[in-house]
């Protein structure tokens, strides 16, 4: 069975952006620690928009189900309605290609991304 690729577009209320970003940062850490079959899971802030996109790649459907049923994801999902300006949009598709391995984000690289994201012209949630 092919891998499952997801892009989740979130639209936080402007005054709730930082709160949602903090929750996503914690969620990504838990996913990386506890979900070996979640191959890629990271978030970005869209430039000049009040949007966050979570990029996800799962080994198979069982990995998707494990993620959705995890206690930390359920807790995250329960908090979304109060933080969102409108419902999230989910896009599921086939991987077309790419370079490098986003799945291999080490703590050292995450720190570099975090430092880079402190620049106002390059926001990133890692």
Approximately how much beta-strand content do the residues carry?
A: 25-35%
What is the rounded distance between the termini?
Answer: 29 Å
Main pleated-sheet profile: 4 strands, antiparallel
CATH classification, class level? Alpha Beta
Order of helices and strands: EHEEHHEH
Q: Using only CA atoms, what is the Rg?
A: 14 Å
CATH architecture: 2-Layer Sandwich
In percent, how helical is the residue content?
A: 40-55%
The averaged pLDDT comes out at: 85
Reading side by side through the largest sheet, how are the strands ordered?
2-3-1-4
Number of helices: 4
Give the domain tally.
Answer: 1
The overall strand count is 4
Alpha-beta content class? alpha+beta
Domain ABM: 4-92
Organism: Penicillium canariense
Protein name: ABM domain-containing protein
Pfam family, one: ABM
Outline the structure in words.
The chain has a four-stranded antiparallel β-sheet with strand order 2-3-1-4. It is an alpha+beta fold and 126 residues long. 40% of the residues lie in helices and 27% in strands. It has one domain: Alpha-Beta Plaits (2-Layer Sandwich), CATH 3.30.70. The two termini are 29 Å apart.
Give the structure's gist in a few sentences.
The protein is α+β, with helices and mostly antiparallel strands and 126 residues long. The chain is 40% helix and 27% strand.
């Amino acid at each position: 069975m092919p891998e499952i690729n997801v892009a989740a577009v979130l639209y936080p209320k402007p005054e709730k952006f930082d709160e949602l970003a903090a929750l996503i940062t914690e969620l990504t850490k838990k996913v990386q620690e506890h979900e070996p079959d979640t191959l890629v899971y990271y978030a970005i802030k869209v430039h000049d928009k009040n949007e966050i996109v979570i990029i996800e790649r799962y080994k198979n459907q069982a990995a998707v189900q494990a993620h959705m049923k995890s206690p930390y994801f359920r807790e995250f999902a329960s908090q979304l309605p109060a933080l969102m300006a409108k419902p999230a949009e989910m896009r599921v598709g086939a991987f077309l290609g790419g370079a490098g391995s986003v799945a291999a984000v080490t703590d050292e690289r995450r720190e570099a991304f975090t430092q880079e994201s402190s620049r106002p012209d390059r926001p990133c949630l890692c």
